[in-house]
Write a structure and sequence with these properties.
heterodimer; A: 412 residues; mainly alpha; two-stranded antiparallel sheet; 15 helices; 1% strand; globular; B: 52 residues; 62% helix
């Protein structure tokens, strides 16, 4: 039915099978749409957010997907600025994943701000000393950059490519991609950092507050480093999942191995700095604010186990696995290491957002718990479903993996 | 006050923040416009079409 739209020389499942695959994701997206309408019409009373938990599940999702979407800018930087040619075999996938992450996060923020009709206030009444303003500007601009990067991939669709004007425009865009990638790197660096900086300057919350360099708390640099360490791993996971579902090899091993190696070394550097940061926090920053380390973990479910899980299980272990060639060459171990790495980064964002707000600060404060409503979960899952839908459509109709035809020759 | 920022103030903070932002935006926009102009020139035969 849609065979004329499919890339040449590659196999795809039947149209009926594709629709069947899409149905559950579309159902989840519709569920999220219903929750979004409820939130927009009735207000944020549909959520369990409060004056204490102004940042909640949606912000965890946002910061998580933005960190994982960093694979787009970092892969683009390595491909076009550093000149790692082998990554051209995976850069399209990285760009699409980045686009999904950033557009999903932006859509979710549109619901989260409660009154999207006033969303432009943050640009018009810009408080330039606010980390959140910097984040808003950079995320919006970087989404624009990702759209510019995504357009040439869309224009490579078999039908669109037959239109001479679009064919030439797509290739002209390809030629300037180096400059676009460099601009994207600049924008991404600052918003990833400012997301971290936002927590580091919360001096009224000793659990999150940190010292720093000039106007930037150390969390600024840690968030940038953790994003570029985990983003490429998320790209690997998405690629491997696509290979598993399609039962094909889509990307040559040298591209995957390079991304995994870079990710491993960056993760190890991040772990060294993160452990140093944690020690300074335990022995200097927290005592100065009148806290002992264990004071933070007296109540509630968030115990020291979270520190151990983040630093050791999801930090040091995957770093060693990714740095060791023999381990990362094993497909199962590679995927495990990537999963642990991404889990660690999401855990880190969860700790900074939820645990920071839950832990008592004043002597008369008590531990506050928060459980999301179904509307919050629905919108969160809708973003995941949206990701599956966009990536599935892209894989079916666009030449996402340039080596697919070569790696999977059609018999006869 | 500038049309791009309602509460614009002529100080270093604003100039650095918006200067960097508009520099990045100008670079991206210029690249897209150049690609569009090159496309028009090539489609109408004013410049030699490159073989891809």
């Amino acid at each position: 039915m849609d065979s004329k739209l499919l890339p040449e020389g590659v196999e795809r499942c039947s149209f009926g099978m594709f629709i069947l695959w899409m149905l559950p994701w579309l159902a989840i997206l519709a569920w999220g749409g219903l929750a979004a309408v409820l939130c927009l019409v009735k207000g944020l009373n549909q959520t369990n957010m409060s004056n204490v938990f102004a940042f909640a599940l949606w912000i965890v999702f946002d910061l998580g997907v933005i960190a994982l979407g960093a694979g787009a800018f970092f892969s683009g930087f390595l491909t076009y600025v550093v000149g790692k040619k082998e990554l051209k075999n995976i850069i399209n996938a990285a760009v699409i994943i980045g686009f999904i992450c950033y557009s999903g996060a932006t859509a979710m923020l549109g619901i989260d701000i409660g009154q999207p009709i006033r969303g432009w206030f943050i640009f018009w009444h810009a408080n330039i000393h606010s980390m959140l303003v910097e984040v808003s500007f950079c995320i919006t601009c970087y989404l624009g950059v990702l759209i510019v990067e995504f357009v040439p991939i869309i224009l490579e669709n078999r039908k669109l490519d037959q239109i001479k004007e679009l064919h030439i425009f797509g290739h002209n865009l390809h030629h300037i991609m180096g400059v676009i990638a460099a601009s994207g790197t600049f924008l991404s660096f600052f918003h990833q950092g400012s997301l971290g900086g936002m927590f580091g300057v919360m001096y009224g919350r000793p659990f999150a507050a940190r010292d720093g360099f000039y106007i930037w708390p150390w969390t600024f640099f840690l968030f940038v480093l953790s994003a570029i360490a985990s983003g490429p791993c998320f790209t690997i996971i998405c690629t491997k999942l696509t290979e598993l579902l399609t039962r094909k090899k889509l990307v040559p091993d040298n591209a995957i191995q390079l991304l995994a190696k870079v990710s491993g070394w960056l993760l190890s550097l991040y772990m060294v700095l993160k452990i140093a940061d944690t020690l300074v926090w335990i022995y200097d920053i927290a005592p100065r604010a009148g806290f002992k380390f264990m004071d933070f973990y007296r109540e509630g479910p968030y115990g020291v186990w979270m520190v151990a899980a983040e630093l050791f299980v999801c930090g040091i272990i995957p770093a060693i696995m990714l740095m060791t060639p023999k381990i990362r060459e094993n497909q199962g171990m590679l995927v495990t290491a990537c999963l642990l790495n991404c889990t660690g980064i999401i855990l880190n964002r969860f700790v900074f957002i939820i645990v920071t707000l839950a832990i008592p600060v004043m002597p008369f404060d008590r531990f506050l718990s928060y459980l999301p409503t179904w509307q919050e979960w629905a919108i969160g899952f809708a973003v995941i479903a949206y990701g599956f839908i966009v990536f599935s459509l892209s894989y079916r109709y666009l030449p996402v993996f340039p080596k697919e035809r070569e790696l999977n020759p059609i018999a006869g | 006050m500038l049309p791009f920022c309602f509460e614009w103030v002529w100080n270093v903070d604003h100039i650095i923040f918006f200067g960097l932002l508009y520099t990045a935006l100008t670079i991206v926009a210029t690249c897209v416009v150049i690609a569009a102009i090159k496309t028009v020139m090539q489609v109408f035969g004013f410049t030699r079409q490159r073989h891809f």
